[in-house]
Amino acid sequence: MNLALIPIFLLLGAAIGFMAGLLGIGGGFTTVPVLTEVFQREGVAARHVLPMAIGTAAAVVIFTTISSARAHHARGAVLWPIVRTMSPGLVVGSLIGPQIASALPMSVMAAVFGAFTWFAALRMLFSKPPKVTGTLPGPAGMFGIGTGIGVAAGMVGTGGAFIAVPFMTRCGIKPHEAVATSAALALPIALAATLGFVFAGLRQPGLPPYSLGYVYVPALVAITVCSVFVAPLGARVAHAWSGVRLRKAFAAMLLVLGAFMWWKALSAS
Length: 269
Fold this sequence. Notes:
mainly alpha, two-stranded antiparallel sheet, 2 strands, globular
């Protein structure tokens, strides 16, 4: 392992931890492009670069979301009934997502996600805040929505906040509570997706040393060390901002994520 990469992983972990606390995201969309570039420069086989970047990102999400969710829970912002209702669907979807990602052309998958994230961002930026209705789907509906979020998040190694937060705000959940709850929802997604990528890479030849399937352990450890300490700082900033400002910040993040997915679509075509 190139020890010069450790500072890069530590800085990446600090950025991911802050965003996890601020916006309730696990950092997958930030982790994947950086790790993709690192693995390419380190000579990892081309067919393993993206799966390993996504698998490692999913594993990072486990730890960032634990830290972020604990910080939000301490402020009483996590809606645990939503977490309990959606978790079974999230697990099922997150196990399916990695299998679809390995079979779907990357250009098609990236273009669809780029369009979706931009659509969600523009709605959050330019539409009026949703009226509070206090209604959420029943258990079957929550299972179905959880499965859909899990599939999408599992395919790209994220915590699913880019779908979960807009969904909850449309159902009348306050922005702060939606962000906090999405941090907790990311845990079952990340656990199931990581298992999927570990299993998918166990019998693959040509993986670099210190890999567990498609999870690169040195990057996971270094990124996690910083992220778990910085996530509570992001959570404090999130609770200091107004709901409107938080929505704009999350929409800006979605625009960045959408641009990244379009870049992947163009580079893969």
